[in-house]
Amino acid sequence: MASIARRLLILATALGGAALSAPAAAQNEQFIPILSYRTGPYAVNGAPYANGVVDYYNLINERDGGINGVKILIEECETGYATDKGVECYERLKSKGPTGAAFINPLSTGITFALTEKTAADKIPIITMGYGRADSKNGAVFAYNFPLLGTYWSAADIAIQHVAKELGGFDKLKGKKISLLYHDSPYGKEPIPMLQVLAQKYGFEFTPIPVTHPGVEQKSQWLAIRQHRPDYVLVWGWGVMNSTAIKEAAAVAYPRDKMIGVWWSGAEPDVTPAGDQASGYKSLMLQHGAGKFPAHADIEKYVYAKGKGSTEPGKIGEVLYNRGITNAMLGVEAIRKAQEKFGKQPLTGEQVRWGLENLILTDARIKELGFEGMLKPVSISCSDHEGARYGRVQQWDGKGWKVISDWYTADESLIEPLVADVSAKYAAEKKIKPRDCAKET
Amino acid sequence: MIALGQFLEVLIGGLMSGVLYSLVALGFVLIFKASGVFNYAQGAMVLLAGLALVRALDLLVANGLPLWVAVILAIGFAAVIMAATAWLIERFVIGPLVNQDGLTLFMSTIGVTFVIEGAAEMIFGSDVYPLRLFPTDAWFLFEGLFPGGILVNKLDVWGALIAGVLVAGLAVFFQRTKTGRALRAVADDHLAAHSIGIPISWIWFVVWLVAGLVALVAATVWGTKLGVQFSITFLALKALPVLIIGGLTSIPGAIVGGLIVGAGEKLAEVYLGPSIGGGIEYWFAYVLALAVLLLRPQGLFGERIIERV
Q: Which residues form the Leucine-binding protein domain (chain A) (predicted)?
């Protein structure tokens, strides 16, 4: 009830006419816009992610005094996960701060598609960690897109690797039925080409099943699944779609341990609304899962102890919170890398792009940053804007996520031809001359 | 036999889903029938009622109250919140706009929608709050006749029963009570009703209160189905084709409209969807609604609009 009273106080203050003060830019500040969604149907997933991002930037300011002395200046803009609002936020924020936006994280594949050409023209990197367009791994064509740590094509391959392992080998995939229950949006559609490639290679029957935004009504999809009886259902959902899928699966008695969600369908808000019905449900991990690591201890010490935290302390270490701090850390390290070349001062998006493209995080550096156990080494280059393509699988046991697999590495021999083909078509359509990565430094 | 079993399963599932849409549509009908206002805020009212209910319930259970006592108290708390909301809307929005045209009143309810959504999430939180008031598992009927049987979800059956009781109760309220008759009189002509001594402010408060309580009932069912969360407001969009088909002024129409939309969209998704890429049920409901609009603009059960020119 204390939290309700606190919220009432906030509401009363808001109604009283208190205005939010816009941040004023100083000359030695690096501006980073945050496109977030704390309201609307996807807020349950968007808010914890945004909390992680904000807390990490605050950590850098509070603990280190900024990035090599350059303070981070942030401003949030609410997109509601809507593409039009996302574009509006980008346009409003891209020029703020002494050097404009260092980079942008839209947290939406739809917004990523809408911004890809704009960010390239504005020379502002668009970081899409674990989402976005999979073909943008090819930095020769997509100079400003960075789908760090894993694209949806990597995710699709890792999911099928895990299914094969459970079945006893890739040869056992032949003749099996695998359905994809997907959010009917650019995000949900993204893995389909890769799954079609995999279905052809391994001989399983692939059936895509769309669910209309926001995914509150899935009865017909699950009745169809009940009739079709697939061996596995891959879930590419977001927000309410995930928990609804689990509940509907329970209603038609589809085994939850034959469902594998993508890493955006494997957080606490996806399973807790379904209660006991979610037990056994599995999802991919974008490397990290839930839990606290040394970076969290610093956040608690330097941010929360000073009363500057973004969320309730009990939510620190949840899956999406951890993804937020990981994403923020990669951005900060890219700026730090770029400062090595361009000086310890606020940098432009173009300069930060160089930092991203030359960012290498070794095990030792990851440990130094407090992310040991959350992240494997990352090595980004002109030709590889993904930087790493590892994943694991976790399973909900009714109380928490348990890691149930070893590390998988997405099969580049399958993904690369698709990336080359689709990105070449994009380059031809947009009249982009691919860079010669051999000549890039 | 398998095909027939599947067809029946989809049909029954669709009809049951339609009844759940009707629970939301009833709130629209009530307010339109009694005040001529198309209340766009009905989906937001379901969210507010659900959040008030589930947050109070969680708090009471956490403080050691027996579940049944906590449920009763939480429903009481949510009802008080809806009553306060009804009073605020009448006092500050609808009341001052008396005698304005329908479009003005409709626009005001759009504003009310955003205020309710924002205030509800700010006060009660924006997480997903599980609510488990009804069973959510399923029966498998006629297993001897159809392989795997015909699946019927228990929550849907509960929803249908609740909707039936609601419709019966509302019919009695409108037809047999003095307040109900006064509501109908106000709906026909505000000024005429006022001139014969019907207190319009009180009547509008009552109608918004009843719509709020219907929203609370809808929230118990939809909250159990989805968890109480912002997405519940999207149910308003599912209710619109139901209203177009059933008619804005008919309580039985809301039920029949729901049945048509539910069955139509589910059958279309399962049998038509795969051939055109799937994901069609959301807009297919509006196709049905447009077809009805062309043939009978006032809806299947709506009152024929006759205007003197």
A: 31-399
CA distance B187 to chain A (A): 33
pLDDT for the residue A115: 97
Does residue B138 fall inside a structural domain? yes
Domain check: are A408 and A271 in the same one?
Answer: yes
Query: Do A273 and A397 have their domain in common?
Result: yes
Interchain proximity B126–A43, CB inside 8 Å: yes
Give the domain extent around B154. Answer: 26-236
With beta carbons under 8 A apart, name residues in chain A contacting B127: 44, 269
Nearest CA distance, B54 vs chain A (angstrom): 12
Q: How many domains does chain B have?
A: 1
Residue A49's DSSP bridge partners are none
What does residue A386 show for φ and ψ, rounded to 5 degrees?
A: -85, -45
Residue pairs between chains A and B whose CB atoms are closer than 8 Å: 126
CA A415 remoteness from chain centre = 19
Q: Is residue B293 in a domain?
A: no
pLDDT in tens, A402-434: 999 999 999 999 999 999 999 999 999 999 999
A284-341 pLDDT tens trace: 999 899 999 999 999 999 999 999 999 999 999 999 999 999 999 999 999 999 999 9
Q: Is residue A94 part of a domain?
A: yes
- Residue A222 Cα, gap to closest chain B Cα (Å): 10
Asked, for residue A302, whether it belongs to a domain, the answer is yes
Same domain, A367 and A275: no
CATH number at residue A229: 3.40.50.2300
Inform me whether the C-beta atom of residue B151 falls under 8 Å from chain A C-beta atoms.
Answer: yes
A321 contacts in chain B (CB < 8 Å):
none
Residues 35-54 of B with CB under 8 A from A: none
Chain B 180-219, residues with CB within 8 Å of chain A CB atoms: none
Give yes or no for B286 touching A (CB within 8 A).
no
Contacts with B182 (C-beta within 8 Å, 6 or more apart), sequence order: B193, B198, B203
Which amino acid would we find at residue A196? Q
> Counting beta carbons within 10 angstroms of the beta carbon of residue B81, is it exposed (0 to 12), middle (13 to 18) or buried (19 or more)?
buried
Q: What is the pLDDT of residue A2?
A: 47
B contacts of A275 (beta carbons < 8 Å)? 130, 132
Per the structure, the count of domains in chain A is 2
What are the chain B neighbours of A39 within 8 Å (beta carbons)? 117-118, 121, 126, 230
Are residues A168 and A237 located together in one domain of the fold? yes
Do A135 and A193 share a domain, yes or no? no
Assess if residue B15 is contained within a domain: no
Q: List the domain range (segments joined by +) for residue A344.
A: 23-150+291-385
Note whether residue B260 is domain-resident: no
CB-CB contact of A53 with A325 (8 Å):
yes
Strands A29-36 and A71-78, by their bridges, are parallel
Provide the shortest C-alpha distance from residue A260 to chain B (in Å): 20
Closest CA to A136 of A430, A396, A439: A430
- Considering the domain architecture, whether residues A202 and A116 belong to the same structural domain is answered as no
Helix or strand (DSSP H, E) at B205: helix B200-226
Is there a single domain that holds both residue A137 and residue A156?
Answer: no
Q: Where are the beta strands (DSSP E) in A212-322?
A: 232-236, 259-261, 282-285
State the smallest CA–CA distance between residue B298 and chain A in angstroms.
27
Are residues A408 and A279 part of one domain? yes
State ipTM.
0.84
Task: Indicate which of A49, A217, A241 best probes the interface with B, i.e. most B CBs within 10 Å of its own CB.
Answer: A217
Q: Helix, strand, coil proportions of chain A in percent (round to 5)?
A: 50, 15, 35
CB within 8 Å: A212 and B265? no
pLDDT at residue B170, rounded to an integer: 87
Contact A430, A117 (CB under 8 A): yes
Residue A15: inside a domain, yes or no?
no
